[in-house]
Amino acid sequence: MKKVKLGPRTLIYPLPAVLIGCTFDKRPNFMTASWCCIACSEPAAVAVSIKKTRFTLKGIEERGAFSVNVPSTKLVREVDACGLYSGRDKDKARLFDVFYGDLRAAPLVRECPINHECKVVHLLDVGSHKLVVGEIVETYMTEDCQVQGEPDAEKIDPMIYLTSVRQYARLGDVLAKAYKVGKGTI
After folding, report:
1. Residue 140: which residues within 8 A CB-CB, separation 6 or more?
2. Mean pLDDT over residues 38-42, rounded?
3. Please, which residues have CB within 8 angstroms of residue 150's CB and are 6 or more apart in sequence?
4. Residue 69: exposure state from Cβ atoms within 10 A (0-12, 13-18, ≥19)
5. Does the domain made of 15-170 have the CATH classification 2.30.110.10?
6. Over the stretch 108-143, which tens digit does the pLDDT of each residue have?
7. HSE-up of residue 173 (Cα within 13 Å, Cβ side)
8. Integer Cα distance of 114 and 89 in angstroms
9. pLDDT for the residue numbered 10
10. Per-residue confidence at 25, pLDDT binned at 50, 70, 90?
11. Mean model confidence pLDDT for the chain
């Protein structure tokens, strides 16, 4: 296969489309983010990269806490709106039924099937963005998105973001069983 050089690009697929929640000036705010990932399992932690100029980053730095809310595809309009407008200018929290968990510092979106309540453990300056690493202090899940107590991806129906074409999509077909399909390959 022939390869072509593209220069340094941030191409990793799929990217999640999540809502990052914070409190700034005593009011809840949410921004759309796709540069978000699991950072650690023990302790459970996530990382999100946020542009230094973002209103949400100021709230995270001010309170030392944030939330990662995993929306279903039903929330595509609201998720997109949270990426279009700044919390400086718009009250994006009015789009949702907001609740607070044990930390009482980071707003969570009740309509999202999964919510992670996080306390900041690291802020790393990486250029135009800061990498925010948060320990997950609690995870909330909509009860009917589980099967036998475990998360069900089909019921959660998470959104993914296709960066190069600026589109939202949903998960596709199952390809194979993990930790099984590769056995005997090597």
Report:
1. 101, 108, 114, 115, 117
2. 97
3. none
4. buried
5. yes
6. 999 999 999 999 999 999 999 999 999 999 999 999
7. 2
8. 27
9. 83
10. confident
11. 95
Q: Are 69 and 21 in contact (CB under 8 A)?
A: yes
CA proximity to 110, closest of 118, 100, 98: 98
Element holding 37 (H helix, E strand): strand 36-41
pTM: 0.95
Q: How many helices (H) and strands (E) does the chain have?
A: 3, 14
Structure tokens at 172: 């596709």
The string of pLDDT tens digits covering residues 49-80 is 999 999 999 999 999 999 999 999 999 999 99
In this predicted structure, what is the pLDDT of residue 117?
98
Instruction: Round to whole Å and give the CA distance between 95 and 5.
Output: 42
The tokens describing 51, both together, are: 């542009």
For residue 98, how many C-alpha atoms fall within 13 Å in the half-sphere facing its CB? 19
Boundaries of every domain in the chain: 15-170
State the virtual CA torsion across 102, 31, 161, 44 in degrees, nearest 10: -30
CB 52 within 8 A of CB 129: yes
DSSP code, position 85: S
Q: What is residue 41's three-state secondary structure? A: strand
